[in-house]
Amino acid sequence: MDWCRAVVLSTVFSMSWSAEDLTFPPGFMFGAATAAYQVEGAWNVSDKGESAWDRYTHEHPEKIKDYSNGDVACDSYHLWKRDIEMAVELGLKFYRFSISWPRLLPSGYPNHISEDGKNYYNNLIDGLLEKGIEPFVTLYHWDLPMSLTDLDWFSDYARVVFSIYGDRVKWWITINEPLIICDVVFDTGFMAPPIVSPELGAYLCSKNVLMAHAKAWRLYDEEFRPKFHGKVSLANHHIWFDPLTPADAELAELAREDCVGKYTHPIFSSTGGWPPSLEKVLEDVSIKRGYKKSSLPAFTPEEIALVRGTYDFYAMNHYTSRLIRKAREGEALTTWPLGDSPDLGGVVQRREDWPVTTSFWFYVYPEGIRRQLVWLRQKYGNLEFVITENGLSTYAGLDDQDRINYYKDYLRQILLAIKEDGVNVTGYTAWTLMDNFEWMDGYTTKIGLYEVDFSHPQRMRTPRASARFYADLIKKHALDPITVLPLNDTVS
Ligand code: BGC
Fold this sequence. Notes:
By secondary structure, the protein is of the alpha/beta class. It has a single domain (26-476), classed as TIM Barrel. It has helices spanning 3-18, 36-39, 52-59, 76-90, 101-104, 115-130, 154-165, 178-188, 201-228, 249-268, 276-288, 301-307, 367-380, 401-419, 465-476, and strands spanning 29-33, 94-98, 134-140, 171-176, 231-243, 314-326, 346-349, 385-389, 425-431, 450-452, 461-463. An 8-stranded parallel barrel has the order 1-2-3-4-5-6-8-9, surrounded by 6 helices. Strands 10-11 form a two-stranded antiparallel ribbon. Residues 35, 38, 176-177, 180, 237, 317, 359, 389, 431, 438, 447 line the site of beta-D-glucopyranose (BGC).
């Protein structure tokens, strides 16, 4: 860019930005996140058990774009001190990470707690606290112990984690993204475990996951909250849906209920249970397919009461949006929720002006995050909302202006939601602290504030321009033109 264009652009930029109040409310928290399987590596050190993702990537390397796996990943199991250093460099208020269930409970069951696993998370938690950074912990980010793939042992695992770490961890996520572990897994077979069962398995899973979350929340509420006073929720993945034409408005609303409402109505609504409109449509579809009853399993009144109200805040992961339109008679459909929705009879597409990214499922539409927040507030009231994941996948490179623009644009929409729409958003989490094992994309797509050199034995971490942007934003507590802060470029 020549200097003249740069001056014009920066003048326009500072004019349009200074017209708005771009400061975040006092007390608004900024953090960054990772997940155990995506960064820890050390898949078989000490007595760690095998997870569904260990098995899946070892037995089906062809399912991962670059035939890679999380065996070493960022080696955070050994390099956790450097991870804390990066959190300090960024000035994070909290660091969201997940505990690997099979690392802490090698058999999956609470009969044996791994000393090494326990110490690893103790060190990480204590190291963060020493630096004044709050640990924000997810119990389950998809690495299910292989021994448990058919059983419901989640609340026993939760009890172990709450009793070991609950004195110091005040923010908990029970389960990360039911939409991915149920709908994506069972509809597509793209992820572990590779079982395809879109008509039955996906919906059974939806109910089981909600019940598992509710039991863990109630366990915390009864046994741990009185002494530890923490907050517990589950984190949903939100894809915002707009109708392609006005005639598709009802369908878009159904798609929102299928994608988000299915996992929020049972917990956050005053009535509990499935969203009524979705329940009706899925029952009709099931009967048409020859089933005797809906493949969305009914909740009993006791189950409705068990699940309803099991939250202390709302945890929102958001990346992308979609358009939806009614399918034409006989039109071939792909699979939900990354593609079309055969159950709703909807064809899903990108709006032409939404930029694509290096992840096939991911288009950029900043307004989507604001509209999603407003939708949730309208449905469930003004809860405390924490954005628990948001970030951009790109190609490699340290000068990631596109990621900076993504953060700016999405954060600006969050500020509008707070200031114009009165949504009570109290925190924001950048996904992700560092490049990681990006599930079916392996290491081919980059999403970190820090670049990780996966060919380096020490998995060298280097801050990108976006890390400097984020540190500056946190320091100023406001969106502003960028000042480059000195971050540690060389330490691995
Ligand atoms: C998941 C992360 C993942 C991110 C980007 C989220 O849905 O929680 O584990 O890395 O998407 O693909």
